[in-house]
Amino acid sequence: MEHVVFQVKKFLVGQDVLLERLIVALLARGHILVEGVPGLAKTMAIKALAQTVGGEFQRIQFTPDLVPSDIIGTRIYNQRSGEFQTSLGPVHTNLLLADEINRAPAQVQSALLEVMQERQVTIGRETHRVGEPFLVMATQNPIESEGTYPLPEAQLDRFMLKVLVDYPTPAEEFVIVERMTGRLEPLQQVIGPAELLQMQRAADGVYVDPSLIDYTVRIVGGTRRPAAVGLADLARYVTFGASPRASINMILAAKAMAFLRGRDYALPQDVRDLLLDVLRHRIVLSYEALADNVSPDSILTRVIAAIPVPDVPLREPRGQPDDALFRRDA
After folding, report:
1. Are strands 83-88 and 126-129 parallel, antiparallel or unpaired?
2. Cα–Cα distance between 114 and 320 in angstroms, integer?
């Protein structure tokens, strides 16, 4: 994975959190939603990562005139044979980039639900499995309202992580301009799908102490009933809290984060580093919260602070942790 990061950083300047979360999603078999204003290298980061891990890659540019068959495929009539044949859509791939996903209407968004959750699509009476590994990496632009559609809550819940991308620092932007106006080195494939599947299985074997699972469940429960954790004033801002899928994805992502950091056991810090990314898109705010300009992150920050971090017994790591991997210069 260090070689993968090295290759991606040939193109990507800064955005270490985004790159770390992309790799966590790869290892945990989860989908990821990246939100940020235009020009912050969201699409570039995803495309660069796809090139380094190999496998089949497809990109869908979402537009308001898309229909579900453009995504999953359809049945077409073959005049020569006189029979209908199935033409599979671009979702039949390993890495799927859904660019500007919030530009597609609701029926297209719904077409993605089955493939994101079940790893399969149904066309007519036939069900077709997608390949392994399979990952949906979606981007969306939060500042435009014309020609965009809010993602359904049921689809948002299928994304393991939602990462917010901010502007680069002046020093990073200097390197960006210098690099993008010069000659770029081509990216090289570092690992293949078979190696990625082995890493996914290794991440599955990371040990999670029961106290960490209880910690996660208590935080998710606090988003549904803030009064139960001493935050009764937040109840008027939350219409619906996070679902049990949030607890499951939190533990899966923590396993992948621990594996990425060189450990075969998860620590509370692995969970805390991912809490906002796992939970921010699963909370449905009330109209009062929107009127008072209250964000999901501000609610989650208070819920996290209200629940004490458990003491987890340490285990001997298999190798030396490399937490500085994503803090190196580009």
Report:
1. unpaired
2. 40
Q: Say if residues 296 and 234 touch (Cβ distance below 8 Å).
A: no
* 102 vs 159: CA distance, rounded Å: 14
Separation between Cα atoms, residue 88 and residue 127, nearest integer Å: 11
Q: Residue 147's pLDDT is what?
A: 62
Q: Which two tokens stand for residue 7?
A: 């290759």
Q: What is the mean pLDDT of residues 168-177?
A: 85
Q: What is the DSSP string of 243-288?
A: -HHHHHHHHHHHHHHHHHTT-SB--HHHHHHHHHHHHTTT-EE-HH
DSSP string spanning 134-186? -EEEEEE-SS--TT--PPPHHHHTTEEEEEE--PPPHHHHHHHHHHHTSPPPP
Q: Flag whether pLDDT at 318 surpasses 60.
A: no
Q: How many residues does the chain have?
A: 330
Residue 89 has pLDDT above 60, yes or no: yes
Instruction: Report the mean per-residue pLDDT for the chain.
Output: 84
| Share above pLDDT 70 across residues of the chain, in percent, rounded to a whole number | 93
CATH fold, domain 2-194, is: Rossmann fold (3.40.50)
For residue 277, the model assigns a pLDDT of 93
What are the residue boundaries of the structural domains of the chain, listed by start?
2-194, 205-327
Specify the CATH class of 205-327 in words.
mainly alpha
Judge contact between 73 and 209, C-beta under 8 A.
Answer: no
d(CA 98, CA 104): 10
In this prediction, residue 276 carries a pLDDT of 93
At 119, list the tokens. 């790893």
Which positions ≥6 away from 272 have C-beta within 8 Å? Answer: 304, 309
| pTM, to two decimals | 0.84
- What mean pLDDT do residues 314-324 have? 51
